[in-house]
Design brief:
Blueprint: H1 6-15, E1 41-43, E2 49-51, E3 53-54, E4 63-64, H2 69-75, H3 82-90, H4 110-126, E5 133-137, H5 143-149, E6 154-159, H6 162-173, E7 187-191, E8 203-209, H7 218-227, E9 229-240, H8 248-260, H9 269-278, E10 282-287, E11 313-319
Parallel strand pairs: 5-6, 5-8, 6-7, 8-9
Antiparallel strand pairs: 1-2, 3-4, 9-11, 10-11
Helix pairs in contact: 1-8
């Protein structure tokens, strides 16, 4: 499931903005690495018990305790309205007439633009030979699996949600043509809990696109991924940066956890690198994304004078 789908998450946060505090008090948290955690239940001024975020003993955003996140990952799609379900089916495309309020102006929004650019950048960076086997972990509605399969790769997408897997299969079955005049589309999907056990298969590459932060046991996920890659296999991870404590983004993600019960727990950059290292991956790519068209007159000596580069998304490639 790609719940880091920011279009979806932020639209939810707008709907329930009334329950989001303007600022989270930093005193609600202990520092990472302290021996004890905050109690998961606190008493509000009106005497009601409320769930509180707990600082995890690693480089992740605090999760809200008292939620069965795995159960929610299975069920959350069934709670969406028709508009949101259709968006998942057609992602990354959607009707600009129904653009979320946060996306001002005409044309494609920045987040949808990022999805298209990310696919192209990953395909170029991985540079896999034709016919290579790719595993899409937390494939969601299968859009990335479909796109890689249409390049001629053998792709398998896995997700814990039966509804999303059904949606993925429907999506690929609707593609009206083969890869070329003699090659059929090779793209399959399976309901699978990657936290529990790896698949009994090997792959040339594994992609975790905006999905790792939905798993409670990220170390188990990484171990199982590593076991499905032979020496020389590549893992490509994209994850957003962990928001700072008390920030608006942290409050939005907490609100989504409370409302939809799905885990939204991004990682520190250094912790992502640690996960790769401890599972036998040599980091062969550590990227930021720079995309777009630039005025020719802005070029100086064949160089683009960039004043700033967004670094709030981490693109990491590790080779086993």
């Amino acid at each position: 499931m790609k719940s880091s789908d920011e279009i979806f998450l932020r639209s939810v946060s707008e709907e329930i903005a009334g329950i989001i505090p303007e600022k989270v008090n930093d005193s609600n948290y202990r520092a990472v690495g302290e021996s004890s955690h905050l109690d998961s239940i606190a008493v509000s001024p009106n005497g009601k018990q409320e769930s509180q975020p707990t600082r995890l003993p690693n480089g992740r955003m605090p999760k809200v305790e008292g939620i069965d996140y795995k159960c929610a990952a299975v069920e959350y799609v069934d709670k969406l309205d028709d508009e949101r379900r259709h968006y998942l089916l057609t992602k990354p495309f959607y009707n600009l007439a129904n653009k979320p309020p946060k996306h001002a102006g005409e044309g494609m929004d920045a987040e949808t633009f990022r999805h298209f650019c990310d696919f192209a950048n990953m395909a170029v960076t991985l540079a896999l030979p034709a016919g290579s086997r790719i595993l899409d972990v937390g494939c969601g509605s299968g859009w990335l699996s479909e796109y890689f399969a249409r390049l001629g790769y053998q792709v398998k997408g896995i997700d814990i949600s039966p509804t999303l897997i059904e949606m993925s299969r429907r999506r690929v079955a609707s593609v009206p043509y083969d890869i070329d005049h003699e090659t059929t589309l090779r793209c399959s999907f399976a309901i699978h809990d990657i936290e529990t056990v790896p698949l009994d298969e090997k792959f040339d590459a594994v992609i975790c696109y905006d999905s790792l932060h939905h798993f409670e046991d990220e170390r188990a996920v990484m171990r199982n991924i590593a076991s499905m890659l032979d020496v020389g296999g590549v893992l490509f991870i994209l994850e957003g940066e962990r928001p700072s404590a008390g920030s608006t983004t942290e409050a939005e993600l907490r609100a989504v956890m409370e409302h939809y019960r799905t885990l939204e727990s991004p990682f520190d950059y250094s912790y992502l690198r640690e996960l790769l290292n401890e599972n036998g991956f040599a980091i062969v790519g550590d990227y930021v994304s720079v995309n777009g068209l630039f005025e020719r007159e802005s070029i100086e000596d064949d160089r683009l004078p960039l004043r700033s580069v967004p670094t709030n998304y981490h693109y990491l490639a590790g080779k086993k």
